[in-house]
Amino acid sequence: MPKAFTPKVVTANALLEGDVIYLASDDRWVRRLDEAEIITDEAIAQLRLLDAQARASEAVGVYLADMAPTEDGPQPKHFREEFRATGPSNYHHGKQAAG
Amino acid sequence: MYSYTEFDTAFVAERNRQFRQQVERRISGALTEDEFKPLRLMNGLYLQLHAYMLRVAIPYGTLNGAQMDQLALLAEKWDKGYGHFTTRQNIQYNWPELRDVPDMLDALAEVGMHAIQTSGNTIRNVTADHFAGAAADEVADPRPVAELLRQWSTDHPEFQFLPRKFKIAVTGAENDRAVIKAHDIGIQVVEHGGEIGYRVLVGGGLGRTPMIGKELAPFVPQEDLLPYVEAVVSVWNLLGRRDNKYKARIKITVHEHGIDEIRERVASRFAETKAAFNGADLALFDEIAAQFAPPAFRNAPTEAFDAAYEADPVFRAWTDSNLTAHKAGGYAIAQISLKAHGETPGDATAEQMRVMADLARRFGHDELRITHEQNVVLPHVHKSDLPQIHKILKAHGLATANIGMISDIIACPGMDYCALATARSIPIAQEIATRFDELKIENEIGELKIKISGCINACGHHHVGHIGILGLDRAGVENYQITLGGDATETASLGERTGPGFPAEEVVPAIERIVGAYMDHREGPEESFLQTYRRLGMAPFKLALYGEDTGKRSRAA
Ligand code: HEM
Ligand code: SF4
């Protein structure tokens, strides 16, 4: 049996502000992980990635990040993505401060 | 203080103008990210985890009050109100937006500063002892020779496409505060029979393959220095491994060919390079040295200092840990710790920067230094002014009395900011400092340097920490490897791994056990942690860390 596909979100940094952004299902770039589109199909994930990479004047370093789907939205599988979602842990002024 | 020439000023202005256009073209879509990235890196602009980061050079870590004020302005206007001083004697801003960066660079140029990283495979900014021109133990100020090397290497046609980047550090004293043994070339100013010359080391470096530099020449006379350094770079330029980026640094070349063969090759190349120098460099050196002339020290009584020292235990503790002997009578070198317990190592708020700028102007001949240990220095203060300086520092959270102690930790940004990180380093530093402050045993422990990196690139110098901590990603969990016995000074050595690493929440208890073992085994308070480690080796520390099953666990690692 092929290995189960780990669900993904499309993520990047915003070109102008540099902050972490996610692709929502309506093609908007959003700042909050819980508003991101969670993709459970590998072929669709690749397509969404290609489309997002084409938006080079909005986003830098677009890639797919592993997520677990939950009731509260996508939950990062790796701690690096957790930090990206919340901001630095030494000051309360990253994403976590913005709310 | 050294100020840049008109040539330098025009060069920086032109670079800023070009970069402004490049940013506009990136935003308009005329430049792709692949085209833009090398351009922004050349101007000190990185993209990190949560934002852009702008890295501003502070040559030799030397700056004046106006420059520090300008750094405060940048922090307030374009960042979140603070800046981060680094082990490379730079300042980094963690939150600039792309559109603002050209304005930030123009603001820096107003005070003769820039973010040009002399990036790429060239000879990088030369670094020097942060006590240069002030330390009592100094043979001569190392900065004129550092500046000479900077001017010689900038745009040197032979050295624009080296196998890899190349870093030089210079110290003017036997006590090495510039970590010269961890640089591609380390230079120590020495004196033989009244003549000033240079001891040259080669092949040091940290990162993936850490190495301690080896002595190439015990004494190179002043007139031979540039041709000699040129010969070294030139030999490496030919031999260096261009096939593999991880083997390209000169430390690998020296390791593969051996120091004796390198020395012979340098000697024969030197015969050629020497012939090409006409002495113009010596005239230039004198010109530069004149600009680094010491300030006019005053001769005044120091009773005010002595009285405060007797009367105020807080002041006394601060002077005992934060002052260093100055070469002028009645003066001292005062370090301002950016390591308040529980705070981020190396961070200063805009207000704190202005306070330090103001202190430098009022009491310090308008000079400040940034140390590679992420602290700030007032290099020339008269002792009679110290009680007042201390009072002002205290009022702004800048009077922490912990220089060289367990809470004076070097930590790289790690995964709180850095895109290359495998784990966090700042919170580990914060927890260790907070814990030992609670225990109130810092003074009893004495000198103990902890250095933390968030990945193998070793920006936090963990290999040369008395206790080194390296954050790794072990199957998706932060894990910390501990090394003991590293040393960044003239007796440099690389730390040795204790054994298996520790999860984040076990790091502080592990450090406590190591410190406990030291306190139990030291011959007395005058035997430092490093001395005890050198006398006893790893065994007692291993036992304290892992208990009796030490052997099993380290084999399993
Ligand atoms: C956060 C952004 C940073 C990035 C992306 C970064 C990246 C790197 C990389 C890739 C290397 C290895 C280069 C090589 O060995 O060829 C390196 C080395 C180094 N970095 Fe950083 N760094 C960052 C921040 C810092 C900071 C904040 C400091 C000071 C606290 C620092 C100090 C150093 C030093 C001293 C080395 C040389 C270590 C050696 O001797 O090999 N870096 N950095
Ligand atoms: S050591 Fe690694 S984690 Fe730390 S700043 Fe350097 S590259 Fe980033």
UniProtKB/TrEMBL annotation, chain A:
InterPro entries: DUF2849 (IPR021270). Residues 74-84 have a biased composition (Basic and acidic residues). It comes from the Bacteria. Residues 68-99 are annotated as: Disordered. It holds the Pfam family DUF2849. This is Sulfite reductase. It comes from Salipiger bermudensis (strain DSM 26914 / JCM 13377 / KCTC 12554 / HTCC2601) (Pelagibaca bermudensis).
Automatic annotation (TrEMBL), chain B:
The keyword Iron applies. Residues 119-272, 408-544 form the Nitrite/sulphite reductase 4Fe-4S domain. Residues 52-111, 346-395 form the Nitrite/Sulfite reductase ferredoxin-like domain. GO terms for molecular function: 4 iron, 4 sulfur cluster binding; heme binding; metal ion binding; oxidoreductase activity. Keywords: 4Fe-4S, Heme, Iron, Iron-sulfur, Metal-binding, Oxidoreductase. SUPFAM superfamilies: Nitrite and sulphite reductase 4Fe-4S domain-like, Nitrite/Sulfite reductase N-terminal domain-like. It comes from the Bacteria. This is Sulfite reductase, putative.
